[in-house]
Amino acid sequence: MLSVLLVIFVVLASLAGYSALRFHQIRRSIRPDGEMCTVDGVQLHYHFFSAGNACPDTPTLVFLHGASGNAYDSQLAFLKPLKGRYPLLFVDRPGLGFSGTIPDGKNSPARQAELIDGLLRKLGIDRCIAIGHSLGASVTAALGLRAPDRICGLAFLAPATHPWPGGVAWYNHVAAAPVIGWLFCRILTLPVAEYLAPRSIQHVFHPEPQPENYNQATRLPLLFLPDAFRSNATDIARLKPHVIAQSKDYGDLEQPTVILTGTEDTVVWPSIHSEGLLRDLPNAELVVLEGAGHMPHHTRTDAIVEALDQLVLRVGRASVLDCRSSA
Q1: Contact, 62 vs 117, CB < 8 A?
Q2: Which of 46, 97, 108, 278 has the fewest CB atoms within 10 Å, counting from its CB?
Q3: Helices then strands (H, E): number in the chain?
Q4: How confident is the model at residue 193 (pLDDT cuts 50, 70, 90)?
């Protein structure tokens, strides 16, 4: 028994040492290159790109990434086709990328939306369209509910917004747990995540290929840092009870909305989330992308950009009608 315990100790110590070394390498080699803003004690990292000749009434497009990612994911897909046409804001959601974590694990979609709304206020952004992918779509919905005057349009990409049957992977619950989660994220997650990451990314993109430079361009190793991994796991592990409560209010989301989903998405269920949004939101339109998986912003970028262009026009028409009705 003593020998077994000694072997276990040596293995865990080796994993902890390897993880500590890799954590140091990641932090040293990947540095933030955006701006920082502290909102209610939480530091948010973001990139803002103005649109030089755009009409003053042009809404800012605010991109909220999904789970296991950061704002570089949205930038990789949308910066090139949209830069200069609209003001663009790419935000690392709290706890991911270079943004700070929310204390006490209270990083619900509503709390994240509260912080992002605070960032918009500090940046002087009074009119915008929120665009959320996957788990980020639940934060987009929360933001639309919280700030309907500021959020004049909504776009949901492969959204996760409604309660679903079953649960989530066991390791998310372990990583989110008190004490043991802290240890788990500093000893085991990095070597396991590095080994499984290529297969996991293939699964998320299935049945379409990922961009060749995806891992490097999105700074994937940032997810393996212990605080980020634990925050991400908490987002996932606690999402279901949050959307059970939040989805009851979706009828209040009266903004012009577009929902985009792929027929081959195996990560979330379009029949639950996308069709649920279409059912619950009074001014929503659904665009179904035949053969697309869970990452359509990378594999069907042109179709999504076209849908966003149409949404901007709808938002403009809605604003004119609002002005006429209040006159």
Answers
A1: no
A2: 278
A3: 13, 8
A4: confident
